[in-house]
Amino acid sequence: MPPKKVSIRIDGALVSATEGQTILQAAKSNSKHIPTLCDLEGLTPVGACRIRQRTLLLVSLGDCAVTGNVPAMRNSIPVNKLLQAIYVEGADEGKVIPADRVPPLLKQARPLREFVKVDLFLPGCPPPAKTITAVLQDLLEGKKSESLSVKFG
Predict the structure, then answer these.
(1) Distance between CA atoms of 69 and 52, rounded to whole angstroms?
(2) Which pLDDT value is given to residue 34?
(3) The pTM is what?
């Protein structure tokens, strides 16, 4: 028996859904955008939300996590074109895109805060050891993250 069709209202518009679909799935299949941190492309639904359920304080450590930095510079290049340029066109030998040693890339490199609420940002590439030590000492002494000031630049 085919799944039962139901109608739901999203942003005032009546849309069609299949019984058992989540509201997010129904919205997506009807081209309706609902911002969420728990349903991001390329991540399992348990990823970002479970991190916050199990974490009292989340620190974004280093420029790549804080801003996307150097990895995000490739965002304007489609992933397949990027891999082709690096592993085939840029190689002197073994001109093949490795399938077993390179993890799949998301369409874009994005900062951690786009996936999960971050409490404290420690910029730097890498952050200076003195800064990391000072922040950890402050946290261990019970200072609240709002009172910790880390300057960019």
Answers:
(1) 24
(2) 77
(3) 0.57
